[in-house]
Amino acid sequence: MEERRAEPHDGNTDGVSRRDFLRTIGVGTLEAAVLSAAPLPSEGAPAHTGDLVPLVLTVNGRRNALEVEPRWTLLYVLREKLGLTGAKPGCERGECGACTVLIDGKPRYSCLTLALEADGHEITTVEGLMQGEKLGQVQEAFVQEDAFQCGFCTPGQVISAEGLLRKTPHPGVAEIRHGMSGNLCRCGAYDHIVKAVQHASEIRK
Ligand code: FES
Ligand code: FES
After folding, report:
1. CA 190 / ligand 2 centre spacing (Å)
2. What angle do CA 191, 193, 197 make, to 5 degrees?
3. Which CATH code is given to the segment(s) 18-204?
């Protein structure tokens, strides 16, 4: 699985911009879906319109034996087949980040990832950050910093923050804004989101 997540243009050592991401990876994945005879699935769409193939998907440490259509996205399978509705269908075309999950610890858009591409990889959804019945550290930091309004983008923001802190445990403000730039918030809670990531970093010390 080679897809990269959208990164801002400036200061990125990998040199991958959102536009690059869409052009090189997202579009490739979308092509795979678009080129299939049936339309992309979405919530409420007919569940089965093609051949099913076996897939074992490891999500939040649990192996799930499934049968999926090759065109199904990871987002669709997580929500509709595994009942994990934390990842949200926002734009479903790689623009908003509401669908973000961790794949092998790195934030990825699940709407641009085919379920079959996730075979053999470790997937973490926002549900997997819970500590039993308690919120995880990043989730708790978002609550304490009041880092959301409507909350629709929040699961994706939390997952991206988790991915950022795994890679950079103590990021500066610029690094936080850079690392979170693949997640949009239509409520404009960005300043509080930055504070929440800083708070989570402090908690983790
Ligand atoms: S729903 Fe995947 S990026 Fe918007
Ligand atoms: S809190 Fe509403 S979209 Fe971010």
Report:
1. 9
2. 120
3. 3.10.20.30
